[in-house]
Amino acid sequence: MRFTLWVLICFLSLACSTANNNPCAVGSSAPCACSNGSAGAQVCGENGTFGQCSCDDQGGAGVSDSGALGGADTSTGSTPSGGPTFLSFGTNVTSITEPESLTFTAVVSHPQGSDALAGGSLVSPDGAIQYGPFGTGGAQKGAYSVTLSWSAINQAKTIEFAKEDKREFIAQFFDTQGRKATKTVTIRLHCNGAQACHGSCDIDFQNDRHDCGSCGHDCGSLYCFGGRCRSSG
């Protein structure tokens, strides 16, 4: 019995040693265990070895308004079998106001390595709005990012709300065989409690002849005083 146990231990040790010594394909991914017991993935680095385990519940975090780490909404998405895989996706902030910007960051891997990835883009939920492609960069292998300004978001779809608005942005990545993986994040747009018109937080509803009292209420040839159209002051 002792001899059998000793042989088994030696066999497992040899197998582990062999696996650790075998180089992996740069950009490829492998499953790993997260600290909370869930499954994660690790990416093969340029040195031919796998890096730290990345977990979806730990990745995709953004920085909240206070500057502390806070999770952005990345609860929805799809991952094709054998295709691109999101290791993380999130933003540096969870809400913006005029004239701020935000950066979307994704870490994506592929079972066949990074060369199998064709690229990715940021789009609206219906796919009608193409905000722009993800660019590569950063120290982490497979890291992509794209930055959007308040103005760019407004150009794609006019920002107008009474107090605030929430918009969904979808990151989609393709491989060379056309398989697509997606992840969604929700961002809050606000004017610090004020109303937004035509993509601007700075509207004088009391005196603006074109937005008198509310967005789009045009007084024509009349004047705007106290939020109402009048013939004179």
CATH fold topology of the largest domain: Immunoglobulin-like
What's the β-strand tally?
Answer: 16
Which architecture of the largest domain does the CATH hierarchy give at level 2?
Sandwich
Instruction: Output the structural class.
Output: mainly beta
Q: What fraction, in percent, of the residue positions are helical?
A: 10-25%
Task: Report on the biggest sheet.
Answer: 6 strands, mixed
Write the element-wise H/E pattern from the N-terminal end onward. Answer: HEEEEEEEEEEEEHEEEE
Summed up, the domain count is: 2
CATH superfamily of the largest domain: Immunoglobulins
CATH classification, class level of the largest domain: Mainly Beta
What count of helical segments does DSSP give?
A: 2
The rounded Rg comes to 25 Å
Ranges where pLDDT stays below 50 over 5 or more residues in a row are 3-21, 56-75
Ends distance: 103 Å
Q: Bin the strand percentage.
A: 35-45%
Q: Average pLDDT value?
A: 78
From the spread of the alpha carbons, the general shape counts as elongated
How would you briefly describe this protein structure?
With 233 residues, the protein is mostly beta strands. 12% of the residues lie in helices and 36% in strands. It folds into two domains: 146 residues, Immunoglobulins (Immunoglobulin-like); 31 residues, no CATH class.
